[in-house]
Specification:
heterodimer; A: alpha/beta; Rossmann fold; 2 domains; seven-stranded parallel β-sheet; five-stranded parallel β-sheet; 18 strands; elongated; B: alpha/beta; two-stranded antiparallel sheet; 13 strands; about 30% strand; globular
């Protein structure tokens, strides 16, 4: 790689998503201030989101305005990304490591013959190659890989990088030529977009704080205890498998080996004993707090802070205390 | 319906991880490799689809070295897979998701496939690259992080939820496609003893790895374990209110996780 970057935008509610902003700052760091950075947006969000790149000092944007790109599978976007990279001379594609970003770099590994990595938490240049670090085994280990070859595509783990500073410029706009979308990619249809099951608060993948409840909560009727603590923190709600298997909460909230992996700044485990199948979904959280009545629960071995006690007393007290300190 | 399920042998969840001599990879010595996590869910999902769509077959395909790859294929047969193909990797090759995808695509492209099911990622490298790379190599759409997968016979389409960071998207897709499964909503079944015994003698089609596979574009340079966790700092308290105050002070002032 020579250090010209294409940052692929994911747009949420008309704005660049948090992981996209992080990708801009990674491009700025890897480029050492001199690298060429181009922002890329596909679909009908292109003009508005393209302008937003300028707010963070990105001097060029490449827009693929075809509105058909709004609802095609990722494979269709990959064609436009390759066309944009060819047109702008970019040799490194950076994207947030969301469902979209991971699917995209997997496509680019084959179509663009790029060296790729997902779940990246650190990236630096080393001569012509890029070194990345990424947590593996559910955060129980970290690997460093050297990516070789003229083209690189990285999906960056959300929350692992700082957001870029605002340094508004008026970006030069380039149009990406329309790429014909093959019929097999137009056959699948997106029929609905759903926001998080919670209706309010951030989703599990997005949240910088996650509060999860486990078997210790004892019933579906008691689960609002966990949700109120989450609400007081602006946190997402998670659950252990015991909770989702019992049907107290939907399986979309499950954190663990067969559910979601999360890596928030703060993870609060309420009434969760800490079976390994749960731990592998949350071990890479920055700070872990456990509240459990059993002092020998394995969760206390991986937590940073622990409270042994009756969660039905401790959790409401904690919710009240957080509301008190956060009151304006 | 012809359902292909890609599976990968991974260290069982309880494995105590160690660094191999040289410091670049996991030390696989003595590690038990199993069918686990998302792949186990994907196989369960395939078996449920087979039960709901008459005339279906489940074909498991795996790429990897002996003996672990053959073992997980036999485990899948014991659970109910009808056919198995093993693309043999030379012993000691470091797993690379794109190399694996090319090997799997070579095997899948020569057999019928209405649906290619994978776990959304493997429990060891957590790359999640095989489903999209397979989609690209087979020239069919792929969808990652999928839940609630169903076949609608009247539409002749799959219906599913693709979870995203903002929530989810509902999709309808015709055959063939690749799906990386988030999780099954049913508990994966366990194999019955007679089926385990039968699986030991079941035929497994073997394919050599394709020598024209271009090989990995990235190499592992270090494999590190975090410093051992010392255990939680326990908060001493007399009343729940005191516990709450102490914890909130620590989270704000020491851990600095919120203002």
């Amino acid at each position: 790689m020579t250090g010209s970057f294409l940052v692929v935008a994911e747009v949420q509610n008309g704005r660049l998503s948090g992981p996209t902003l992080e990708a801009i700052s990674v491009a700025q760091t890897l480029g050492g201030g001199t690298g060429a950075i181009v922002g890329f947006v596909a679909g009908s969000a292109a003009p508005a989101a393209g302008a937003e790149f300028g707010r963070f000092g990105v001097p060029r944007v490449a827009l693929a305005r075809d509105p058909a790109l709004d609802s095609v599978p990722v494979a269709g976007i990959a064609s436009a990304v390759v066309a944009a990279a060819e047109k702008t001379g970019a040799d490194t594609v950076l994207v947030g490591g969301t469902t979209f970003g991971r699917d995209l770099v997997g496509r680019l590994a084959v179509r663009w013959d790029a060296a790729v990595a997902t779940g990246v938490t650190e990236a630096r240049r080393e001569g012509d190659s890029v070194q990345v670090r990424r947590p593996i085994f559910g955060g129980r280990a970290t690997e460093t890989r050297r990516l070789e070859g003229p083209r690189v595509a990285l999906a960056l783990r959300p929350h692992a990088f700082a957001s870029p500073v605002e340094a508004p410029v008026s970006p030069a706009v380039e149009e990406v030529p329309m790429v014909p979308i093959p019929p097999e990619l137009l056959a699948p249809r997106r029929t609905a977009i759903e926001t998080s099951a919670q209706g309010s608060g951030p989703s599990l993948g997005d949240a910088s704080i996650v509060v999860s409840g486990g078997r210790g909560v004892r019933s579906a009727e008691n689960f609002p205890l966990v949700e109120e603590l989450a609400a007081s923190l602006g946190a997402a709600v998670g659950a252990s498998r015991a909770v989702t298997d019992a049907g107290w909460r939907p399986s979309s909230l499950q954190v663990g080996q067969t559910g979601r992996s999360v890596s928030p700044q703060l993870y609060i485990a309420v009434g969760i004993s800490g079976a390994i199948q749960h731990l592998v979904g949350m071990l890479s959280s920055r700070v872990i707090v456990a509240i459990n009545s059993d002092p020998s629960a394995p969760i206390f071995r991986v937590a940073d802070y622990g409270i042994v006690g009756d969660l039905f007393q401790v959790v409401p007290a904690l919710t009240a205390e957080i509301r008190r300190v956060r009151a304006p | 319906m012809e359902i292909v399920v890609c599976i990968k042998p991974v260290p069982e969840a309880e494995t105590r991880l160690r660094v191999a001599p040289g410091g670049q990879t996991l030390d696989a010595e003595g590690v038990k490799f199993v069918l686990a996590g998302y792949d186990e869910s994907a196989l369960e999902q395939a078996l449920l689809l087979k039960e709901s769509v008459p005339g279906s077959k489940v074909h498991v395909v795996s790429y990897g070295p002996p003996p672990r790859t053959e073992e997980v294929l036999r485990a899948a047969i014991a659970l109910g897979a009808d056919l198995a193909t093993w693309v043999e990797a030379p012993a000691g090759t470091a797993g690379d998701p794109i190399v694996a995808a090319r090997a799997l695509a070579g095997a899948i492209s020569s057999v019928p496939h209405d649906l290619v099911l994978c776990g959304k990622q493997a429990g060891d490298d957590e790359a999640g690259l095989v489903p999209p790379a397979l989609g690209e190599l087979l020239s069919i759409p792929d969808f990652g992080s999928v839940a609630e997968l169903r076949w609608d016979p009247s539409l002749a389409r799959f219906k599913f939820l693709r979870s995203t960071d903002a929530g989810g998207e509902r999709w309808e897709a015709p055959t063939p496609c690749v799906i990386g499964l988030q999780q099954a909503w049913n508990d994966p079944r366990t194999a019955k003893l007679p089926n385990i015994l039968k699986s030991r003698k079941a035929p497994i089609a073997k394919r050599p790895a394709d020598p024209s596979n271009p090989g990995p574009r990235s190499v592992p340079t270090t494999f590190e374990l975090p410093p051992p966790r010392t255990g939680a700092r326990m908060i001493e308290y007399k009343t729940p209110e005191e516990a709450a105050q102490k914890l909130v002070r620590i989270l704000r002032e020491e851990a600095k996780v919120f203002p």
